[in-house]
Amino acid sequence: MSRSCGLLIFISLGILQGCGTSPSHVISDVMVEVPQLRGESSDAYTLLSGEQTPADERVEAASMLLSMGDNRATSLLKKTLAVDADKKVADAVLQAIIVSQHTPPRGLYEPLKKLLLNSEGALQYRAAEAMGRYANEQAVMTEFVQLAADKNAEVKDRQAAILVLSRMHTRTAVQTLISLTDPEQPEVIQSDAYIALALMTGNDTYRNNRGKWLAWWKQARNWSKDRWYASLIDSTTRQNARQRLELEETQRYLFALGRSSYRNASEADREKILAYMLTNLRPVRELAMELVLERILGGQPIDEDLIEALRGRLSDPDPKIRHLAALRLNDLADEKSADIIAERLVGHEESSPLTLHDDLLLLTNMPRKQAIPVAITLLDDETLSPTAAGMLVSAKEHGLMTEQQMKQASDRVHALIRPGKLPHPQYIALLASMGEMEDWAYLKELIDSPDDTVKVAAAKAWASSDKSLSVLADHIDDPVILPIMIAAAAERGKDEETLRVLADNPPDQAQVLEAWTHAMIEVSKHVEGEFVLELASEITKLEIPSASQSMTLAIDILSAAIDQLQAEDAAAMSVMQLNLLDRLVMLRAQILLESNNTNGALMDYQLLDKSFDDMDLYMQEAMLRGYITTLLRRDEIDDAFAQYERLDDLLVKQGKSPVEDTMLEMFLYQADTYADVNRSAEAQKVVDQLRDILGEQVPPRIERRLEALDTKLQ
Fold it and tell me: Given this model, what pLDDT does residue 104 score?
């Protein structure tokens, strides 16, 4: 490829590309002096010459050294421009010179000139651009005009001089370039001169047509100074627009290529690729952040090397990269990152509001004591104060704030609240966490706010406090407050009033209904069993949202109350407590039986049977009736008749006639059911046992039923 073609390619891609392949090490004579450096210049030079430093961070470090302007900084920069220095470092310094608003120090002129004349490719183009920053110095202009026109000089040196002139945008430079298009000049000199003219003027239509360039120059050399520079600005604007479009297209292609390379790599290599990308050019680092998020959302592993690379981006020169790094590390709940960010806040190393916002969010999840004073001061920043308030709430919850700090935070947030203006939800949370008595009346008023956001914040603050839940209960008909009240009740509801309010306000939404059910059960663990007994009976008559779900809830709250009583020492329980336990179990058994859960019902009746002798006659009778019904539904006929004999004795003891008891109807019904489904053996068994029990005392109504069964079974 000719130098002329190389120049055109650089014009298109030079902004995106680095300086090409170059040694990855820093030369030894530079490295040995690093330990002797001190202060800011030392830090900047260490970053500039670091082997793993990303390209744009190198440029920033070089820019810092340039801005210092002292002899030490200039001396360090001269070392990086040595012909045999690390090309990546030299390229970063050249870029810093190019983008600087000021003419580079005169002390860099000779190193730049040597680098220009002794390098090639992209690095030489950068050097020429940097030399062009001396355009206002007549001696520099004269030197390169003479070198470009010197027929006795080496062609490569003349070409280098043309590169410099193409960046000087003066009429003297144009005059020289026009003269170098003379056919008597070497062909490569002519070609480079035409390219330089096109680059300087932004006119790529004349190409190598000397006649058109001469005609243009005949007019342009007589333009006024203002018109001359206006023409250059216009042409440069058009040229930059073309280059920007080419750059965007190239960047899109490289991004697609980067994504494809990452996704086509083996899983074992992907994290290594991302860690490397995070130390590359800014657009590449941004792409890496996108791919890291993809891994996090996909539940893919993030190893320590990749996390360490992300931590390194917390001090990235680009605020957008720092912002993305904070978000990713927050997603990963990385504790070391919280330490790094806290120290950066303390050292006032962060100035980007967007990044500060994300840093505070990370510290909200992982608060650090040393960052609290900074967060308090950031309450004064209108854009950051809500996030700072959120971080302070978290710090208070973690027990990290002193009394003095809480007072400072409270004073500042009070100053943020304006009369007649609704407070930010985070201010509400901060006021609540500080626990000032006079603030609770204000927060109580906010629960009636017309703004749902403020209302929810105030309700949540109240729910998280130790204040009575009755305030929230008064607003439970508000669909915004209802889920907050339910969650608070599940967390700390311990009274009958709370349980009653919940029971009277079942929600319609399925998700909220699940939370409401959980809250009902939790509160049932703390209230008196008598109340639970009464409430469970009421619930079975409701349909929330169906009868079966109502019975399930009744069973659950009864179980909660039963578990609480059973957890106590049985020997120490009073007669009233034992009786209450029996009644709770009895009701649960009845509801289980009604729900066709005969296994559960049987277990409860067997449990009740253990305390049968301590029950009153009413309880004994109710228990036996339920027990018999359960056994019959389970086809346990012999056991059912055994329990009936106990019921028979109990009825006689009460002066009642067993043959008139409705329990006999239950047996007859069961026998009919067996006969209808061709289970004759079971039906006959019930009939035979009934005749044995009744003997000669068979009431006419029972006899007619038995005869009908006999006929059906023949």
Answer: 92
